[in-house]
Amino acid sequence: MIPAAFDYQVADSADAAIAALAEHGDDAKLLAGGHSLIPLMRFRLATPGVVVDIGRISDLSYINDGGDHVAIGAMTTHRALETSELLAVEAPLLRHVAGQVGDPQVRHRGTLGGSLAHGDPASDLPAALLAHGGSVVARSPGGEREIAATDFFTGFLETALGADEIITEIRIPKAAGVGWSYQKFNRRAQDWAIVGAAVMLGDDPKVALVNMGSAPMRHGGVEAGLAGGGGTDAAAVAGDDTDPPEDLNADVEYRKHLARVLVGRGIAEASG
Amino acid sequence: MEVSVTVNGKHRSADVEPRTLLVHFLRDTLGLTGTNVGCDTSSCGACTIHFNGESAKSCTMFAVQADGAEITTIEGLASEAGEMHPMQQAFMDCHGLQCGYCTPGMVMAATSLVAENPGGLDEAGVREGLEGNLCRCTGYHNIVKAVLSVGGAG
Ligand SMILES: Cc1cc2nc3c(=O)[nH]c(=O)nc-3n(C[C@H](O)[C@H](O)[C@H](O)COP(=O)(O)OP(=O)(O)OC[C@H]3O[C@@H](n4cnc5c(N)ncnc54)[C@H](O)[C@@H]3O)c2cc1C
Ligand code: FES
Ligand code: FES
């Protein structure tokens, strides 16, 4: 379980990291908390020639009031999210979901930017970003752009990020007082979700599913039902238009069943 | 690459390959074999240390990431005079260990958990807070008892 050899570089600013990516191209990987990348490297499923450590860029770690949204630095740890007083008021779903990731050791190291950039359909935070209707700010040598959550996750472990782009900030529209719920189904403590559902009510209800397709996804059918006043009945279609994986934990039919049950529970809790 | 760290209050430095995992650096380079490797897949918590005061799995970090950091391992908990840390004493008093393999990681995770909860923990809080640590002897009951005896509420 020893990773393949690589060159290690420390980036002391976002711009330094971008310059390193521009120089080394596909051969380089950013290292944030390392809690997705290092496990892959130990199995040699990832063998980058150059690892650019952005873990020391302290000015990418913040949770600020941005007016109509909360602005969160990409290097903010899950732990900082789950203990944030600002998020407790303005984005309680995101705060709660951060506390559901892995275990305390993982949450001390793992970052929001890393989790989103990894784009794992089984991970929790992408669903929270989608349900909040948030966005990701990415910077490259060409400048900065803001990518809506719905455009960000493009496939299995794939995102809209270019090879020379780094996430600098995540923006979450303020959602004080809006009903929300996160339902994570797993069999053992610490495990990843077998299926998960994030629900945000309000004027423009949003429902995101975990592990129900090749990428983190929103469910338009359930959302339309909710917008039409369907309440928990909207959950009946949660298994439709999904393409969940089949593995030791669950087959496709069982995952679809879980999606309906969890979305139903989520809508009920968020409405309560 | 040169790595300089403060481990258990002492300054240590060594030349390592960037791919060296922190747990191997602690065990093989520095000879601090109290930190165990149980799974090598980030699941078991046997390798838990404190990294700048917070619990972390040292099998899921590179030694080079620790350059300039402060690390505490199980060897650093007892006093200079050899008096056990209250958490170590509690594990002994409550029979919180059987084979002892998970114990260094359990104790490091537990001390970090207690430090983060100055208001005190209840049983559910301890069980959830130790979810990243596995005990193959399944002695969880007495482990939880030990942690509650140090960091319990009320
Ligand atoms: C035991 C264990 C249990 C876990 N359980 C869960 C769980 O239940 N739910 C869950 O959601 N996650 C879980 N995780 C994953 C964890 O949340 C990771 O921390 C997270 O997925 C990745 O964040 P990171 O900061 O560690 O990223 P890294 O591993 O450092 O990076 C991940 C990827 O993102 C890229 N990247 C990192 N930062 C940026 C950036 N700013 N801009 C562009 N690209 C970037 C990297 O190059 C890499 O490709 C678990 C991990 C472990 C080890
Ligand atoms: S050896 Fe690190 S978590 Fe098991
Ligand atoms: S005491 Fe044996 S593994 Fe925990």
Topology:
The complex is a heterodimer of chains A (272) and B (154).
Chain A: E1 7-10, H1 14-24, E2 28-31, H2 37-42, E3 50-53, E4 63-65, E5 69-73, H3 78-82, H4 85-90, H5 92-98, H6 104-109, H7 112-118, H8 125-132, E6 135-140, E7 143-148, H9 149-152, E8 153-155, E9 158-159, E10 166-173, E11 180-185, E12 195-200, E13 206-210, E14 217-218, H10 220-227, H11 252-271
Parallel strand pairs in A: 1-3, 2-3
Antiparallel strand pairs in A: 4-5, 5-10, 6-7, 6-10, 8-9, 11-12, 12-13, 13-14
Helix pairs in contact in A: 5-8
Chain B: E1 2-7, E2 10-15, H1 22-29, E3 48-51, E4 54-57, E5 70-72, H2 86-93, H3 103-116, H4 123-129, H5 140-151
Parallel strand pairs in B: 1-5
Antiparallel strand pairs in B: 1-2, 3-4, 3-5
Helix pairs in contact in B: 2-5, 3-5
Bound molecules: flavin-adenine dinucleotide (FAD) and FE2/S2 (inorganic) cluster (2 copies).
What does this structure look like?
The complex is a heterodimer of chains A (272) and B (154). Chain A has 272 residues and is α+β, with helices and mostly antiparallel strands. Chain A has helices spanning 14-24, 37-42, 78-82, 85-90, 92-98, 104-109, 112-118, 125-132, 149-152, 220-227, 252-271; strands at 7-10, 28-31, 50-53, 63-65, 69-73, 135-140, 143-148, 153-155, 158-159, 166-173, 180-185, 195-200, 206-210, 217-218. Chain A has three domains: 7-52, Uridine Diphospho-n-acetylenolpyruvylglucosamine Reductase, domain 2 (2-Layer Sandwich), CATH 3.30.43; 61-173, Uridine Diphospho-n-acetylenolpyruvylglucosamine Reductase, domain 3 (2-Layer Sandwich); 180-271, CO dehydrogenase flavoprotein, C-terminal domain (Enolase-like, domain 1). Chain A has a five-stranded antiparallel β-sheet with strand order 4-5-10-6-7. In chain A, helix 2 links the parallel strand 2 and strand 3 (50-53). In chain A, helix 5 (92-98) packs antiparallel against helix 8. Chain A is globular. Chain B is an alpha+beta fold and 154 residues long. Chain B has two domains: 2-76, Ubiquitin-like (UB roll) (Roll), CATH 3.10.20.30; 86-151, Orthogonal Bundle (DNA polymerase, domain 1). Chain B has five helices and five strands; from the N terminus they run ββαβββαααα. Chain B has helices at residues 22-29, 86-93, 103-116, 123-129, 140-151, and strands at 2-7, 10-15, 48-51, 54-57, 70-72. A five-stranded mixed β-sheet of chain B has the order 2-1-5-3-4, covered by helices on one side. The N and C termini of chain B lie far apart (49 Å). Chain A binds chain B through residues 1-8, 31, 34-35, 38-39, 41-42, 51, 53, 55, 79, 102-106, 108-109, 189-190, and chain B through 1, 17-19, 21, 40-43, 45, 48, 51, 54-57, 60-62, 64-65, 109, 112-113, 116, 127-129, 131-133. Flavin-adenine dinucleotide (FAD) sits between chains A (29-37, 39, 74, 101-102, 106, 110-111, 113-115, 117-118, 123-125, 161, 166-167, 192) and B (42-43, 60).
